[in-house]
Amino acid sequence: MQFNPKNPIIVQSDKTILLEVDSDFYQDARDALARFAELEKSPEHIHTYRLTPLSLWNAA
User: Is residue 39 part of a domain?
Assistant: First the structure.
């Protein structure tokens, strides 16, 4: 997979997902993430989501 600096999401190995608020694609990415991830933190520039068994169950 190639790096694209316009993408607003970073997925980490501990199952957390970082979403950059200042991105042009923020709203679309936020709406997609809301289907299968839980919002943990929402400071000013980077929001943190987490994949949990419950969030995946609810998505299914």
Answer: yes
